Amino acid sequence: MSQERRYDLIAMGRSSIDLYANDVGVPFVEIKSFAAYVGGSPTNIAVGTRRLGLRTALLTAVGEDPVGDFVLHFLEQEGVETRYIPRKPGRRTSAVVLGIEPPDRFPLVFYRDNAADIALTIDDVLATPIPQARVFEFAGTNLSREPSRSATLFAAEWARQAGATVVMDLDFRPDQWHDPRAFGVAVRRALQLVHIAIGTEDEIKAATLTEPAGVEVPDFQMSGARVRGDVAAAVERLLALGPELLVEKRGEAGVRLHFADGRQVDVPGFPVEVYNVLGAGDAFAAGFIYGHVQGWPPERAARLGNACGAIVVTKHGCANFMPRLDEVMAFIETHGGW
User: Fold this and answer.
1) Considering the chain, what is the average pLDDT of its residues?
2) How confident is the model over 246-257, as a mean pLDDT?
3) pLDDT for the residue 215
4) Strand blocks (E) in the chain
5) Which of 28, 43, 247, 294 gives 15 a disulfide partner, CB atoms 3.0 to 4.6 angstroms apart?
6) Separation of alpha carbons 216 and 144, rounded Å
7) How far is CA 291 from CA 48, 49, 85, 170, in A?
8) Is residue 5 exposed (0-12), middle (13-18) or buried (19+ Cβ within 10 Å)?
9) Do 10 and 130 touch, CB atoms closer than 8 A?
């Protein structure tokens, strides 16, 4: 990507205060204390890319409350551009409460009633220099309610017309949708504007969900239940909508790159001891976007993303623990290389 623009990345979507259990490995009901961090998928990605060295801006919204002050203070310290983040009167900055029960239970509870970021409007988008970004990234949760849904589609359309690469993190959070099938309807519409989509196997299958029983329980991300269906068929259907690349995140196995021309490439991950999986996917996206901006082949960008994700799964939280470039490069060299 050779064109000179003001920002390497503008990310759009939710932000929050994340309260992570300090009592690791205990049942949620026995947690005694929490550590306060900043979170939200696009926010994590914005911080991750900034720490890697990109020029990054964030389009989210916060309330006129101390939690909004907390989020903005952290972002400003990190060097993420916050001038396009409106404060929404009468709205609340959202919160997430998270438990940590390795290796496979990480319960989380969203507090997003009256959330400020879901109130982002087309006017908020127009106040942001979307055409001055080399990459525009957004999350699927943006599409769960209006006015954020229309604002996000407008921003993606504007970014694509301006020649930016449009990246979507599928980001399926079932409890943020009135019906799991609505997630698929919205995602399939948005993918017509997207160059690169990123998601887990469950998220890819959920994006093609049409049957009412397609999700075993509404909160599968908390329980470990799976979305039923054929991932290969889901990939084919989503790629037919227009993306050039669909990145399937596969945990410890790394990622599988699905190209529009039918090619598949597996990019291995890095074996580490898992402490907390929450935020690893956002760290991957930050690393992948960094590589894309540098003009790297997708395979190399994905390898860097895998390294970022592997580092974050050994940490306590998300945005506050995103790695810097020298840390990632050293990790790669000591864990098998490229």
Assistant:
1) 93
2) 96
3) 52
4) 7-12, 16-21, 34-39, 56-59, 62-63, 87-88, 94-98, 108-111, 133-139, 165-169, 196-200, 245-249, 255-259, 264-267
5) 43
6) 20
7) 12, 10, 26, 20
8) middle
9) yes
Does residue 315 belong to any structural domain of this protein?
Answer: yes
Q: Which two tokens stand for residue 40?
A: 């939200």
Split into its structural domains, the chain has a count of 1
What does the DSSP 8-state code read for residue 100? -
What the block records as the tokens of 18 is 């994340």
Indicate the pTM of the whole model.
Answer: 0.94
**Amino acid sitting at position 42:** P
108 has a pLDDT exceeding 60? yes
Is residue 319 included in any domain, yes or no?
A: yes
> Residue 160 sits in a domain of what CATH number?
3.40.1190.20
Range of the domain at 236: 7-14+41-90+119-334
Residue 72 in domain: yes
DSSP for 230-245 reads -HHHHHHHHHTTS-SE
**Is residue 2 in a domain?**
no
Please provide the DSSP assignment of 167-196 as one string: EEE----GGGSSSHHHHHHHHHHHGGG-SE
